[in-house]
């Protein structure tokens, strides 16, 4: 499903910039950084997004390694947006267990402090490390103000 829109983007060359598609697994961030560098150059700040996917990392150490590798390559002033499911809800934990039983790649909800630890050394942007229902404009426009078992932040690399 990703490949078809990517091909469409690649066929539309515009004066606004370049597009590229990298077929890679986030478990190999060195490859992603190397291939992305061919297009992005890494001279100007970047926006890097890991949205609800790093729960598929096999361990907390791997999650930190993956995000850290990408952020280490990003220049100063770059932003990281990252959220993942947390282990603070038994109901959500059961959902993840049931999902793994379908044959899908297991999703590991982690304690909030582990997800928060990914941002060490980076500058939190308001509203800080919170449930994603408390991010702007989600909480304001969708009426979702009750925290859910998905926490994250937007951070800036100094």
Note down, in words, how this protein is organized:
The radius of gyration is 17 Å and the shape is globular. Helix 2 runs parallel beside helix 3 (60-73). The protein is of the alpha+beta class and 158 residues long. Strand 1, helix 3 and strand 2 (79-85) form a beta-alpha-beta unit. The chain is built from six helices and five strands. The chain has helices spanning 3-11, 29-40, 60-73, 90-100, 112-117, 138-141; strands at 47-51, 79-85, 123-124, 130-131, 150-156. Strands 1, 2, 3, 4 and 5 form a five-stranded mixed sheet that branches. Helix content is 35%, strand content 15%.
Short recap of the structure:
This protein has helices at residues 3-11, 29-40, 60-73, 90-100, 112-117, 138-141, and strands at residues 47-51, 79-85, 123-124, 130-131, 150-156.
């Amino acid at each position: 499903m990703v490949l078809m829109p990517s091909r469409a983007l690649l066929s539309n060359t515009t004066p606004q910039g370049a597009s590229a598609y990298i077929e890679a697994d986030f478990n190999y961030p060195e490859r992603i950084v190397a291939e992305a560098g061919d297009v992005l150059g890494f001279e100007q700040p970047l926006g890097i997004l890991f949205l609800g996917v790093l729960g598929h990392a096999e361990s907390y150490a791997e999650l930190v390694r993956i995000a850290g590798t990408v952020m280490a390559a990003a220049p100063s002033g770059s932003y990281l947006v990252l959220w993942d499911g947390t282990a603070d809800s038994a109901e959500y934990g059961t959902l993840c267990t049931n999902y793994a039983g379908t044959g899908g790649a297991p999703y590991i909800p982690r304690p909030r402090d582990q997800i928060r630890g990914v941002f060490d050394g980076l500058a939190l942007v308001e509203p800080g490390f919170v449930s994603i229902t408390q991010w702007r404009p989600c909480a304001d426009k969708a009426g979702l103000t009750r925290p859910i078992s998905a926490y994250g932040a937007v951070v800036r690399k100094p």
